[in-house]
Write a structure and sequence with these properties.
Blueprint lengths: L15 H21 L11 H9 L1 H26 L6 H30 L10 H29 L13
Helix pairs in contact: 1-3, 1-5, 2-3, 3-4, 4-5
């Protein structure tokens, strides 16, 4: 792409890992939006508390699920859009993503492990919400971990390369 000053600005390809993070985060967010707008499939895999909240307080559940879904979509796409140069403030978004990526990995792995331990009877805690525990052990929390790992890998792959040409000169 040519700028008005006659120089050529190179666009670096975004690593597949950032695309994977955006897609996984979008899937996560899409489920929240689906439940916000009345969908019930797999809602019990979030936990019985979620089913009860939707049944007992539908307006509040709508607002919370809508907000969560929108936040997940923003968290999924801002790192990718920022890296592609479509959003200002790349250093700030990278900092946020550097905190968020590892946090998603830790959150996802820890919660999946705890849910799995309860399901396997390793904790002595009764598994009274089996669908919720299965959902956290096998779907939602592993998805958080994959999302965070892909985001973190994408950040590693793109550090120190934007704004420089192949010889390391500022563009």
């Amino acid at each position: 792409m040519t700028t008005g000053e006659g120089s050529v600005r190179q666009r670096h390809p975004v690593p597949v890992a950032l695309w994977v993070a955006a897609v996984v985060g979008t899937v996560h967010g899409a489920w929240s939006l689906y439940w916000a707008f009345g969908g019930r499939a797999l809602l019990d895999t979030v936990g019985q508390w979620a089913v009860q909240a939707v049944d007992d307080e539908p307006a509040l559940a709508f607002a919370v699920l809508l907000g969560v879904g929108i936040l997940k979509l923003l968290a999924a796409w801002i790192p990718l859009l920022s890296e592609r140069g479509h959003l200002p403030g790349r250093p700030l978004w990278r900092l946020v993503a550097w905190v968020g990526g590892p946090a998603l990995v830790l959150y996802g792995l820890l919660n999946a492990a705890v849910a799995g331990a309860v399901l396997l009877g390793w904790t002595g805690t009764p598994a009274d919400d089996r669908p919720g525990l299965i959902g956290h052990a096998l779907i939602w929390d592993p998805m958080f971990a994959v999302w965070g790992a892909a985001l973190t890998l994408g950040l590693v792959a793109t550090r120190n390369r934007r704004g420089r040409d192949p010889a390391g000169r500022s563009l």
